[in-house]
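Reopening this ticket.

The earlier resolution said the output was attached, but the attachment link was broken on my side. Pasting everything inline this time so it's all in one place.
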Amino acid sequence: MIRNLFRWSKDEIAMEIRGLYLDGEELNYTSVEKNHLALLRAACRYFGSWKDAVEFAGLDYSKIRKYKAWTKAKIIERIQELHRQEVDLSWRNVSTKVDPALAAAAVRANRFGSWRAALEAAGLNYDEIRRYREWDESLVIDEVRELAEAGEPLNSRDVQEHTPPLFHAARRRFDNWDSTLEAAGLDADRIRKRPRSRETSASCR
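Inline output:
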């Protein structure tokens, strides 16, 4: 986004930096100078240095300096590193707490297309990583939304085949799968008419 220099503020600069970080872009000085010169100039004007702007945005500048673009190899390497550390690799935990930038990069169409595909590329069993607890209506809805956010197919056949605990819990709590989707704020008709198979997801890699 191109902004007029005089319309920047410290908060807008910080928001832009965080947005680029979540999109998996390189934020070291050289890359920003090349790809986001207007942002860099505004940051230096308002903060005095790029380092101060990055830290104001809540990011660790020492890590930013070493940061490299999220290639498939780096995504796999990071997932395996977290797995060795016995980190909870469920989509919700990674995307909201552990490493949002990793999660955002992994599900991009030009990377793996879904969190499941990224985990499997790293040699991990997606179904073993997913955690299933005592299912109530709230948890069912949360899990459905999590699948949607992770880019997983949500037609009844795929869900029944690949995440049976969720499917059966949904049938118990909401009578049918369409009602579950609607309760999660999703368009059941659209999902039913345009099923997205696992093969389609794999082609996004």
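Reporter confirms the inline version is readable. The CA atoms of residues 87 and 98 lie 8 Å apart. Confidence is low (pLDDT under 50) at residues 1-5, 198-205.
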